[in-house]
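Repro:
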Amino acid sequence: MTTVVVVVIAVFALVLLAFLVSRRRAAEQQLVERRRRELEGHRNEAQANEQRAREAASTATRKRREADRLEQEAERIKVDAAERREAAQDLDERSDRALTFADRHESAAEEKRTEIDQTGKRFRLRSKA
C-alpha cells in the first residue's frame, strides 16, 4: 500500500508538474502573442510616421521652391521698378527741358509779335501820311 501511495503521489506530482508547465507555456505564448501585436502596432506607427515625414518633407521642398520662385520674381520686379523709375526720371528731365524750350520760344514769339506790331504801326503811320 505504501508503494501505491508513493506511486499515486508521484503520478499526482507529475500531473501537477505537467499542469504547471502547460500553464507556464500558455502564459509565455500569450506573452509572445501580446508582444507580437505590440510589435505590429509599433511597426504600423513607424510606417505612419515615416509617411508623415515624407509628406512633410515634400511639402517643405515645395514651399522652399515656391519661396525661391517668389524671391526671383520679387527681384525681377525690383529691377523692373528701378528701370521704370529711371525712365520716369528721364521723362521728367525731358519734360523740364521741353518746358524750358517752350518758354524760350514763347518769349521769342512774344518778341516777334511785339516787333510785328511795332513795324505794322510804323507802316500804317507812313502809309497814311
